Structures are given as structure tokens and as C-alpha cells.
Amino acid sequence: MAHELAPLPYFKDSLEPHIDALTMEIHHGRHHKAYVDNLNKAIAGTPLEGLSIEALIADISNVPENIRGPVRNNGGGHWNHTFFWNILAPNAGGIPRGELADAITATFGSFADFQAKFEAAGVGRFGSGWAWLVLNGGKLEVVSTANQDNPLMGKAVAGVEGKVLLGVDVWEHAYYLKYQNLRAGYLKAVWNLVNWPKVSALYAAAK
Ligand code: MN3
Q: What is the mean predicted confidence (pLDDT) over 131-157?
């Protein structure tokens, strides 16, 4: 079955003023849609059509070489954006609670130290990519990937690994209309949108 672009789980203007409606419209309706369309095109007529998006990108090295690049870029793009839309929410943000909060403090020193490390990972990613919070071998880590790579792809492909708890798109298309070149300002604003109950649920499931 072909992969599909799911509707946003909220209205395109629901993340205002932190992420503007036009950015959401273009980012979801054009960028994410293009990843889905190009992924479907790349795997059309191959046995890979039967795989879930997770199974497909977790095993990139077994994708035939002639379509591996497009599957990696567009399959990664599809998974990453689907995850991103769903880890954000209107009227969210604040601070995590419970076991996740304890783990963040134990690992990074404080929630503020974690935020600084995450923002640095996003700002420090030269060009396009993503910043992530992952659980790797039972330990929280802040990492980043290039382009549409992600930790599901594994260390050999993406350079990082672990179960994804939080991810933020730092491609210019994610913020340029409102923040222009100020990626750091966008990353700070995104804290107002993080759905911590959801991140906590992912943490509980990943442990
Ligand atoms: Mn994007």
C-alpha cells in the first residue's frame, strides 16, 4: 500500500505565534507531501511497497542500491515529519514531569542544561538536519543528524542510534519565513510547543 500524508493533528494556525500558519501549510502540504510522493515513486513495483515506514528506514542498507538514496532521503523525510507534527501541540511546552524529568536532571544536570544542549545540537548542525533526544542503551542522549537521516536508521547509516523521544526539524524551510536566519530563535520558540506527556509516554515505552 502506498504511503500517505496524514492530515496535521491540529489546525495549521494552531502553533502560532511560535510557528506561523504559512510555514505549517508549506512545510506539511508541500515539503512533507513531496517526501511521501517521492518515496512512493521510488519503491513502486518493488517488494518494499509492503513494508511499514519504520521497517523500511530501519533497514536502509538492505534497500537495493539503485533506489537506496531516494528511499533514505524521502523515507526519512516522511518518518521524521510525521513524528515532528505529533510531538508538537498547541498550548503545550512547560516542563516534563515524573520519571522523564528525573532522568533528564540525572543525565544533563537540569532541564535548562538539557535545553541548552538540545539547542546547541540544532544550531550546530551545519546545513539541513534534525536535533534529537534519544534513549540509547538505557541512557538519554542529545544527538543530531544530517538531511533526513534519523536515529532509527542506526549508527552505520545515520551516525547515531537510539529510540527517538523528541525531534526538531532544523531545515531552513522549518523556520525561515518567520525567523529568517535565526535558527536559535526558532529552537527557543519550539519549547513552547513540545508535548511533554507524549515524550514521557515514549520514554516509558522505550525504557
Ligand atoms: Mn522539514
A: 98
